[in-house]
Amino acid sequence: MFDKSILPTTPLFKLNGVCWNLASKDILKNISLSLPRNKIIGIIGPNGAGKSSLLKAMHGQIKTSQGTVDFNDQPILQYGLKDKAKQIAFIEQLPELTFDLSVYDAVLAGRLPYQGLFSFSNSSDKNRVLSALEKMELLDKVSQPFNTLSGGEQQRALIARSLVQGATTLLLDEPTNHLDIRHQLELMQTLQEFDGSVIMTIHDLNMASHYCDYLILINEGEVVKYGEPKEVLNAELISTTYKVETVVKESSLGTPYLYFCLAESDPINSAEPINSAEPINSASLLTLQSNNND
Ligand SMILES: Nc1ncnc2c1ncn2[C@@H]1O[C@H](COP(=O)(O)OP(=O)(O)OP(=O)(O)O)[C@@H](O)[C@H]1O
């Protein structure tokens, strides 16, 4: 659980001059960031920019070449595995997950950090698992093999495991990957309702604009811009970083909405917008969300 002695104003993560060099390649270059708690923060940038590497550095999965990563005012590399797992859940991209377990057992695995060498799960663990599955609307799948769930259901089961783990910080690597638009919206809504902090890599800039409180735009291992979506999703910055023509409009909710095309075409009138089709028209988005709540 979150350590109550930590002041709410203490950054969740503080990165100071983080560099990661591997085989003479600079994968992360001098990254300094101070990230607030209880927000949804999106890491955006082109393929190979270093988004997943940054997420792994925050989780202490890689030993950076220079600089420090502090989580709740303590170096992430000093956390023991169990202690870290009680606070942070790292959810990788789905294709790498091959649980040969039932949904129940996959979620119960979230209690491992709380168990001793010879202790087994008890009735309170069972209640936690069932309550998390209920929250994620997966109670009817409890005995189903995890591998047979749809991508969206697997993501929800992994979030249930994070809840059972007691983690108040979720680090997610491209959680919307492989999900159809409805499941993407459902997942983002679940993350909005999560009672804690969420940091995720995400490719869909319009989805990021709509759901993230802050964005970190990175390119070639460097932070290009960090701030609120309206500061980061600037046509010039996005055009330069992604090497596409970009036009930014304002959605009816006041968030940036971006149109793209390859250089020298007109982004709005060109035939094929490359990411989410026609405005993630906020009205229809909200209609869908409110339908889900019925
Ligand atoms: N373990 C590794 N060994 C060698 N190179 C690596 C390793 N991890 C990452 N890289 C390289 O670092 C760069 C950044 O990779 P990373 O996966 O962080 O990018 P990304 O922004 O998440 O990309 P994508 O959007 O394609 O998932 C890439 O050039 C990648 O090949």
Automatic annotation (TrEMBL):
The lineage of its organism: Bacteria, Pseudomonadati, Pseudomonadota, Gammaproteobacteria, Alteromonadales. Pfam families: ABC_tran (PF00005). It comes from the Bacteria. Belongs to the ABC transporter superfamily. One of its GO terms (molecular function) is ATP binding. SMART domains: AAA (SM00382). The keyword Isomerase does not apply. Signal peptide: none annotated. This is ATP-binding cassette domain-containing protein.
